[in-house]
Write a structure and sequence with these properties.
- Residues 7-31 form the UPF0033 domain.
- The structure is a single chain.
- The chain is α+β, with helices and mostly antiparallel strands.
- It has one domain: TusA-like domain (Translation Initiation Factor IF3), CATH 3.30.110.40.
- Helix content is 29%, strand content 37%.
- The longest helix is centred in the first third of the chain and has 11 residues, at 16-26.
- The protein starts with a strand and ends with a strand.
Length: 75
């Protein structure tokens, strides 16, 4: 996967992971991938719903050592 930018929002509670993700994805070109690292358990549902509603594609998400990792392709 060709990641353009990595966004670290570990230790930040809702709604800030979404706010920071929106800001970061605006800087990308259509088709580029943003990787997000979060620890807020609510981020799983929030980022999934946000990507869908914003016309972006959630490519993958995993949990690794209590860190949620997401890969979102800008739509």
């Amino acid at each position: 996967m060709n990641v353009k930018q990595v966004l670290d929002v570990k230790g930040i509670a809702c709604p800030m992971p979404i706010v920071k993700t929106k800001k970061a994805i605006r800087q990308l070109e259509t088709g580029e991938v943003l990787e997000i690292h979060a620890t807020d358990k609510g981020a799983k549902n929030d980022l999934t719903a946000w990507a869908k509603s914003g016309g972006h594609e959630l490519l993958e998400h995993i949990e690794e050592n209590d860190v949620l990792k997401f890969w979102i392709k800008k739509g």
